[in-house]
């Protein structure tokens, strides 16, 4: 079982019983989503920005405009942290202070470089699109050179990471369990609704099979 070594950087201090440093566990959390939060410093002010991403092995890829100040900022500092979170349930306790949520979260720490080769950039953008919608890239028109030239692609290498997971019921005070107060868990999940075609030709086209497959698997 491969794990990330614990250090001051990635060690979970509060709720250590919910921490995991297992590489497979962390990768599963990353692969279950396509939106992350990237941290950076701008003008001495800490900022966190949501970004689309894709993972391949120990690399996470993000992209944006060549003028994106966040991407430029993390490239100048050579490093950043990235977090991914999934909300799985609302935990309603008998006491307001014991309300909680069930979740899966991963926090990554690592170094960044810019990907400049057009072939590599295109392959990475394919990964990002397919992380959002599996098998979608092959149905799109080829990317234009001017689009590629305006796009900055960043490779983030995971140097270390940690996960924190809560997947349990209510933890109330022992004396509160006899109170006439409803308590329990409301499971939460993200669902897909039926695809809505864009105006024009898509309105007269059949929805592609891979999109319908995604809808059926996530409705």
From TrEMBL:
GO terms for molecular function: oxidoreductase activity. Pfam families: Pyridox_ox_2. This is Pyridoxamine 5'-phosphate oxidase family protein. Gene3D superfamilies: Electron Transport, Fmn-binding Protein, Chain A (2.30.110.10). Keywords: Oxidoreductase. InterPro entries: Pyridox_Oxase-rel, Split_barrel_FMN-bd. It comes from the Bacteria. Its EC number is 1.-.-.-. SUPFAM superfamilies: FMN-binding split barrel.
């Amino acid at each position: 079982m491969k794990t990330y070594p614990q250090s001051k950087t990635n060690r979970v201090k509060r709720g250590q019983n919910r921490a995991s440093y297992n590489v497979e566990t962390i990768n599963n959390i990353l692969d279950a989503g396509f939106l992350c939060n990237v941290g950076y410093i701008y003008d001495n002010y800490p900022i966190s920005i949501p970004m689309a991403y894709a993972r391949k092995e120990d690399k996470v890829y993000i992209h944006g405009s060549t003028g994106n100040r966040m991407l430029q900022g993390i490239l100048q500092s050579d490093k950043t942290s990235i977090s991914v979170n999934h909300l799985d349930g609302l935990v309603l306790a008998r006491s307001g202070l014991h309300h909680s949520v069930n979740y899966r979260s991963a926090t990554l720490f690592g170094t960044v470089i810019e990907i400049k080769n057009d072939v590599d950039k295109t392959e990475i953008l394919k990964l990002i699109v397919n992380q959002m919608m599996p098998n979608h890239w092959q149905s799109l028109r080829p990317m234009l050179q001017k689009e590629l030239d305006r796009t900055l692609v960043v490779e983030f290498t995971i140097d270390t990471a940690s996960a924190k997971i809560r997947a349990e019921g209510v933890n109330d005070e022992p004396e509160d369990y006899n109170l006439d107060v409803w308590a329990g868990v409301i499971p939460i999940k993200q669902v897909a609704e039926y695809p809505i075609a864009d105006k024009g030709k898509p309105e007269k086209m059949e929805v592609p099979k891979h999109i319908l497959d995604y809808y059926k698997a996530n409705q």
